[in-house]
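README, section 4: Worked example with a bound small molecule

Sections 1 through 3 covered apo chains. Here we extend the same pipeline to holo records, where the ligand is supplied as SMILES alongside the sequence. The molecule in this example is pyridoxal-5'-phosphate. Nothing else about the input changes; the structure line simply encodes the ligand pose together with the chain.
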Amino acid sequence: MRFDVDGRSVHAATGAVPVDGTDATARPLVLLLHGAGMDRTVWSQQTRWLAHHDARAVAVDLPGHGRSDGPPLGSIAELAAWVAAVAEALGGPVHVVGHSMGAFIGLEAAAHHADSVASLVLMGLGAAMPVHPDLQAAADADDPLAADLMAGWMHGPDQKFGVNPTPGMTMTGTSRAVIETSPDGVLGLDLAMCAAYDGAADAAAAVTCPTTLVLGRLDRMTPRRAAQPIVDVLAHAMVVELATAGHAPMMEEPDVVRSALADHLARA
Amino acid sequence: MVEPDHHRFDTRALHAGQRPDPTTGSRAVPIHQTTSYVFDSVDHAAGLFNLEVSGHLYSRISNPTVAVLEERLASLEGGVGAVCTSSGQAALHLAVATILNAGDHVVASRNIYGGSHNLLNLTMPRFGITTTFVDPRDPDAFSAAIRPETRLVFAETLGNPGIEVLDVAAIAEVAHAHGLPLAVDSTFATPYLMRPIEHGADIVIHSVTKFLGGHGVAIGGVVVDGGRFDWAAGGKFPTLSEPYDGYHGITFTEEFGTAALSMRARAEGLRDFGGCMSPANAFYLLQGVETLPLRMARHVDNTHRVVEMLDAHDAVSWISHPSHPSHPDHELAARLYPNGAGAILSFGVHGGREAGRRFIEAVGLASHLANVGDAKTLVIHPGSTTHQQMSADDLAAAGIGEELIRLSVGLEDPDDICDDLSRALRASQKA
Ligand SMILES: Cc1ncc(COP(=O)(O)O)c(C=O)c1O
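The generated complex, written as structure tokens:
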């Protein structure tokens, strides 16, 4: 679906279930935020399921990503304000589900736009997200190597072999294609924005809404220990740890993430 | 500079898509000889049928053994996913039927496998899909043949039977300039010799029956989805970018983005046309893929030996293989195929049709049959077999002379292959 925010068209997947039907407000509104250089499709294992399980799912393409209008926004704070504008456009506070950069955006939005955020589910995050200089350089140059590097680091070691939960698909191949086809310049901007963001721990300390963290023990982009400062300060966090997942649990362990979402929405 | 962290090609040929079976520890890929899979719950079943959750539900749509082959081939080609089919023909049909509708049009190379030519030229028109055939060496000819209703550009990376070498990047550029995807049949090349997606192709089709399987024991096909083509951009591909009643109004591009084509090809194509691969065949074909790098290197070495021998033989009037300096694509092949341009070649025998027949009858080691890409050396006379449905004019346009012999060089000792062929060549000259 498409809707306008600040005069720009936002594209989102909703599992083909309208979010503005007559019974709509009875169903929680879930806003899913992808990470750097990615798009709405990272949530394809959750969006459609949520939409058919008593929620309104809106997996957006962030500005300048996927099929949403640009330009991309340049800081986590601006994106958090954008989330508040999205919540307003959709007609209510949203349960934010964020991955990686999307998790930073969720934290920042919950801390500084608390009225717009009903709850948080965050995955693939640490208190800081330093970016390997070679990755940043390749992304800045729009070199496809950047997509290759990220696709290799993003998933747990099992995905070097594969066995995608979706028959016939390759997870690293799909992640690489998503990043590779992102508009020029976007990945470099996103990564620089993640590396520059140092407000995660402070934002977490200010969060008052119910929060669930889904953390992969084999995450190489934001190692499990890097999330600890956030876990320590979050007042109402529930932590789901996955022994074999890497940085992208929603793709690697879609069943576990779906049930974490169901548990979270039941208590939020 | 850091290197991407994934296994290299030869390792993926052995491992991609599989980890040892968690319950039994089986190291080999088990044959999941089952039609169906028990559901965890009613909700789980409903979710599977509605594409909310993924997994296996019925082996027409997916099967764990077939999925290993699919994921492995997708990985080797550098795609996002793959759908295996009952044959190479079923793969081409699946791609066409997933992307095109009645009234749509294809621009295809004229130098393609006879069966693919039949499908596009004779059969698809019955369903309202027509094709214009053009010279694969001429990007402008593709461009000129594209019409408002064109939806697909199709060619073979190594053509049939002249081994025309497709300049994949040049043809991809033409297709993309018109908002169209390029699908290639890369059966003769295999991902070991050429990975078309890296050159801009959007879809790679194989007859897995051939070199990928490698042993001539099972028929199979695959459609590999490159995942880079934007199906939603021009509004030309409604099967992918418009809501589909088959799954509660799903729009494949919206929900699956880069994976839209492979998801639709499976969710509609295998569900409705039913051209699925059997798990046993997937197992056989996987045994072949495991040794693809080793076999292709040897196929290519043997081919170079055979080309040398034929080149020096008095009975041979011409040789068509990209490694031979007389081949029109010799230089292009050197650039695109650093590891060799495959193991299929053709040559002419002095004395025309009759000499060709005597040659075929005199070979002893090489097998006379209608296949290519076996571990064993194969010969055929296309004018009287694979291409017999084509008119004399079409044959000439496809570059198939009556004296043409096609050879698929196998893995035997190259001296034995050369001895057999030169003996048969001598026999061909005795009237
Ligand atoms: C280049 C090419 N494509 C497609 C096919 C059809 O494949 P299959 O026989 O597996 O249906 C063949 C078979 O000879 C072929 O050589």
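What to look for in the output: Chain B touches chain A through 57 residues (CB under 8 Å). Chain B has two domains: 37-288, 292-428.

Section 5 describes how to batch many such records.
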